[in-house]
Amino acid sequence: MTPGLPSELSFLLDGAPAPKSDQAWSGFLDRYSRLIIFTARSVTHDRDEAMDAYVFVAEALQRDDYRTLRAYSADGTASFTTWLTVVARRLSIEYRRKRLGRSRGDGAPSEKLEMRRRLAYLVGSEIDMVTIPSGQSPEHDLLRGELVDRLNVALDRLPVADRLLIVRRFEDELSVREIANLTGSRSVYHVYRRLNSILKTVREDLESGGVEGPHG
Amino acid sequence: MTHIPAERMSEYVDGVLPPDQMTLVETHLAECLECRTEVTEVSRLLSMRRGPRRRRTILGLSAIAGAALVILVATTVFNESSPQLSPERAGPAVEQLRTVRIASPALERVEDRWTARLRWESEGPDLTYRVTLTDGSGQSLWTTQTTDTAVEIPEAVDLRSGGVYFWIIDVTLPSGEAATSGVQQLQVP
User: How far is CA A59 from the centre of its chain?
Assistant: First the structure.
């Protein structure tokens, strides 16, 4: 038995011949099927499709003498449950894409550019800087474009952890509580304070570059 | 785009990613919606599978005083809306939770001071709600109990222009279950 691995996984990967290998695989599925189905269900939202996805995931894990499962390293610090959830989710998505085709929004350059613009708009309105003028005149378009560019520069200058917080809040629209859970923050207050501090930094960056606030 | 390998992703979700990997992973996450979604979804799935955590329910002044405030509720959903920041959707049901639904506070400038009326939906008849208001650091400024579903912040509490405050509504239901609005932010213009 390999130390550091869950016992069902260790028995499975130890390479015992049939019928022990069949028993080991049954034992592994007894322990982890619920996790895999639960994860598949989160992707498919349909019970029948979730069961099909489960079969797909199980076959993928078993393939080539459990090659995917052997990729889990007992030396790593992540728990096997977390790792298996990640892998099962990715395989379920792969199953879904094979059935339904790849969805839009998979990171094409034009979409990324649009997302950067949208993030800049959202942050700009949040910090109450110069209102991006509405209307279709070339002058308005130019002003809007300049402000978006400056906002993007200001956002790019942020430390990566701060930028990620802004993206989670404004682009992904996560609640402060969700962000606190994801980042291990002590409380939602800490997240609020950090957000306010980051927005203040962005505002000051813009003001130092000559962009006026509503009272400037 | 090359996404975060499963092992790195797992370490990030578990909060055990080696420091030398953190910047790389966060840099990728800031640019990759797919990986960010994976982090959120996997975290949510793991939380749901672990079930409700046994955490103390702390209501009222003692829970909110002090800068290092942590509000822990045993069986409550936080439905956090933020008048200052964009309206947000409710977080995932990490535990079996009960929410006090709030309405946007009514802020008004009267002569030289700001007044605010906090409002929420009724959770049932004959209930007493505890209302707590804190400053931006979590220090309690005012608390009251009411059977109504609205209160006006008294004149004695000086709401400053540009100030950030937090408020929370707690109630104990006849079943003994606790319900809370979760922490709400109040931004004074």
Answer: 26
